[in-house]
Design goal:
Layout: E1 4-13, H1 17-25, E2 38-43, E3 55-59, E4 65-73, E5 77-84, E6 88-100, E7 103-114, H2 120-141
Antiparallel strand pairs: 1-7, 2-3, 3-4, 4-5, 5-6, 6-7
Helix pairs in contact: 1-2
């Protein structure tokens, strides 16, 4: 079995945590802020459609990536596990949204074992691209504050 990798990314954004949570927890809109071309909710979660038990299918390039939502605690925590589509084992991810004095802190943690040496860099790149995309989307959606130009 391959080596265990763990990547963490922290992003601050001047947007209300509720706005950020709506972005990171709405699977069908992930293609607006991730490298995925299309995201399909193949199975609904319960009691929230995006919650525990939901299966999201990310159509990027190559095989479809399927992830199962394992923890869904609005408005702060979303955990998922890879079901298929990538050359990794024990792949899990967590996105956490925390309020700050100026908006929100988005924390993303991904851990996995490689099957093909060298492929771990793809996860690091995709995670950073997705995190930056979530921040950009939150900035576009945040309501203007008094004094904003």
């Amino acid at each position: 079995m391959g080596r265990l990798y763990r990547y963490t990314d922290f992003r601050r954004v001047a947007a209300d945590p509720a706005v950020v949570w709506e972005i990171v927890s709405n699977h069908e809109r992930m293609s607006e802020w991730t490298p995925a071309r299309r995201v399909v909710l193949e199975s609904l979660g319960s009691p929230d459609r995006n919650g525990v038990g939901a299966i999201r299918a990310l159509h990027m390039f190559g095989p479809v990536i399927r992830e199962l939502i394992t923890v869904f605690e609005p408005p702060t925590t979303l955990q998922y596990r890879l079901m298929s589509g990538l050359p990794f084992r024990e792949y899990t991810g967590q996105i956490t949204v925390e309020p700050t004095e100026t908006g929100s802190l988005i924390s993303t943690v991904i851990s996995f074992r490689t099957i093909i040496p060298g492929t771990q860099i793809l996860v690091a790149i995709a995670m950073r691209v997705a995190s930056a995309g979530a921040v950009r989307m939150a900035c576009r959606q945040r309501p203007p504050r008094i004094g904003d130009a």
